[in-house]
Amino acid sequence: MTSITGPVTGATTVHVALAARAYDVLIGHGLLPRAAELLGERLGLRRVAIVTDGNVAAHHLSTLAQPFEADGRLRDTIILEPGEATKNFSQLAHVCERLLAAGVERGDVVVALGGGVIGDLTGFAAAILRRGVRFVQIPTSLLAQVDSSVGGKTGINSPQGKNLIGAFHQASLVIADTGVLTTLPARELRAGYAEVAKYGLLGDAAFFAWLEVHAGEMMALQPAAIAKAVSRSIEMKARIVERDETEIGERMLLNLGHTFGHALEAFTGYSSRLLHGEGVAIGMCLAFRLSEELGLCVPQTAARVAAHLKAVGLPTRIADIAGAPPDSATLLRLMGQDKKVADGRLTFILARAIGDTFVTRDVTAARVQAFLASDLAQS
Ligand code: GLY
User: Fold this and answer.
1) 190 is catalytic
2) Domain closes at, from 166, 183, 200
3) Which of 106, 126, 149, 334 could in theory staple to 266 by disulfide, Cβ–Cβ 3.0 to 4.6 A?
4) Per-residue model confidence as pLDDT tens digits over 117-147
5) How far apart are CA 142 and CA 261, in angstroms?
């Protein structure tokens, strides 16, 4: 079957130009009911297996699965428990064994329908199943649409930390239906928004300024605002991934706020006490405050960042997390578990201004601990 790679009516297409691993991200309202047709156009009439979670299945599984079922191309549907705790070895084994039992072959396609947990786990299963089968991401959370579904990072968590076991395995197609965001709980939508703001903060001051004006429309899911915000975020991510697929340099900028954020997530036990995007929001505020303290950016930059994130309802300080706060030594120890530790030195993304960030390993542990201690004391 001839595959179509041109524009899709009613969708914005962002191409991720990675030579043999190139693929398109299709962004638009109402794409989910067309997913089987779009997948067929792009990848041929493949047999598929769908992996999703119970919450997403209740809203969207039948819309996706029905056309595949109708023409006998659905090998299996695997429904996992929702939540970060699912991203573990035993669920990975379960998915791989179910896919093999369903007869999934190398020519078939595994479809991840869900948020970041489902995308990461399913992508990793696809990376190792029969030494690699193709997979398609259909992200249903804002966070997954603007970040985790694009760029090929797949994996699971371990007791030592988040995403420490995994592989780079690019999807063959990403279908981001912005219409499905209406079924997201408001808190998850806000958490995903942190990753949208991240793109402005890390490399596009004009986009951040646009968000300051239009975030309200976006959070109300007005189609024009959500389409622009999701498309611009994905476009920025695609360009960075093209230049640095395996994160040896520029891609680290996408981790703005994540060194702090991951430590806070570890402290709260990856629980609903702090969602990933909320940790990123606090982490980005800390990164800008640290940058300001180090004299890298002009006063009031961090206040502007925090004011915007607060206006959309995100936490901006460690003290905003419910319950007893961590101490600075605990946070520093948890940061040491981060993937971004190299030769024992922490990697930070710091800022010269909004939209102008850089990677550094020059901030000493003692300096970071003193900064965290004073930040916690001011809360
Ligand atoms: N979420 C950061 C990255 O994909 O590189």
Assistant:
1) no
2) 183
3) 334
4) 999 999 999 999 999 999 999 999 999 999 9
5) 18
Query: Is the pLDDT assigned to residue 5 strictly greater than 90?
Result: no
Distance 299 CA to ligand 1 centre (A): 29
Atom of ligand 1 nearest to the CA of 153: 4
CATH of the domain at 315: 1.20.1090.10
Q: Is residue 5 part of a domain?
A: no
Q: Which of 41, 188, 195, 245 is catalytic?
A: 195
Lateral strand order in the sheet of 74-80: 12-16, 23-28, 173-177, 134-139, 109-114, 48-53, 74-80
Q: For atom 2 of ligand 1, which residue has the closest CA?
A: 254
Report CA(209)–ligand 1 centroid distance (Å). 23
**Is the Cβ–Cβ distance between 365 and 332 less than 8 Å?**
yes
- Which CATH number do you get for residue 125? 3.40.50.1970
119 within domain boundaries: yes
Q: Which tens digits make up the pLDDT trace of 240-272?
A: 999 999 999 999 999 999 999 989 998 998 888
Beta bridge partners of 173: 24, 136
Nearest protein Cα to ligand 1, atom 3:
254
Spatial separation of the C-alpha atoms in residues 149 and 140, rounded to whole Å: 10
Does 2 map to a domain? no
Q: Are residues 152 and 235 in the same domain?
A: no
Q: Is the CB of 153 under 6 A from ligand 1?
A: yes
pLDDT confidence of residue 2: 38
Q: 176 lies in which domain range?
A: 12-183
pLDDT tens for each residue of 36-91 = 999 999 999 899 999 999 999 999 999 999 999 999 999 999 999 999 889 999 99
Query: b/e per residue, 228-239, with b = 16+ CB within 10 A?
Result: bbbbbbbbbbbe
* 162 C-beta closer than 6 A to ligand 1: no
- pLDDT for 365 equals 87
Is there a single domain that holds both residue 191 and residue 46? no
Give the pLDDT of residue 343.
Answer: 60
Q: Is 1 inside any structural domain?
A: no
In angstroms, what is the span from residue 295 Cα to ligand 1's centroid?
A: 27
